[in-house]
Amino acid sequence: MRAADRRHAILARVADEQTIHVAELARELGCSEMTIRRDIRRLERDGFLRQTYGGATAHLTRSFDISFNARALLAAREKRLIGMRAAGLVEGARVIFVGIGSTTEQFAQYLPARLDPAVVTASLPIASLLGTRPLRVMAVGGAVLRDELTCVGPVAIGTLAQYRFDAAVIGAAGISERWGITELTEEEAAVQRAALDRTERVIVIADGSKVGTATPIVVAPASRVATLVTDPSAPSDEVGRLRAAGVEVLVVERAAPSRVEPIKDARLAAGA
Out of 29, 36, 124, 180, which residue is the most buried by the measure of CB atoms under 10 Å away? Predict the structure, then answer.
């Protein structure tokens, strides 16, 4: 079993039972207890679990979005670096729209504490994450997609119509020079479109696997994107085409240092 598959299995067990035991998981997954402990340490470092004697538990404030976190395992380190880099691009913005997805959650974690913008989001995990900070945070409301924990539909779109955004920081299922920003579902694409229609500057954050990819639903053309933040795995030919189309493409290096600390939950720090 691949490491990513094991970690998905660990997260699925935590989602069902809230706790896991190393010896039991090692038997079920056919690997050593040391391997499971390494997986747990990795998941704890990425903010998904809390290690305990003999096993692990879900982070109490994040146990509701385990499936969201499972998707974040893919290219997790790259997404962290992309989110950190993008967090430095919104200084001076007073009202920010933050889109859905695991990469935008990383952006939210690294929003500098010295900034005091109002943040509007359709993502319940991101609203929960930022809600512990001294920010004005608005979730748009509406119908909730169960797997994504995303607000969609007329209520969400109507709420977005009340705002004007200095910047929108969004993820994308795909981004290419030909097809622009694309998404997987019309419900999510409609929310993204509504936000971008009211935004001065669009920043797309996407790992390299999304660059040059086109999924079925078009959100906006590439010309609408001011900046794309991605990683070195992005196809160089597609990066070149996007730059030629006027998109500023920032490629984060894997060794990029961080000067911004992620959000710490005081309840967890206190051992809640």
Answer: 36
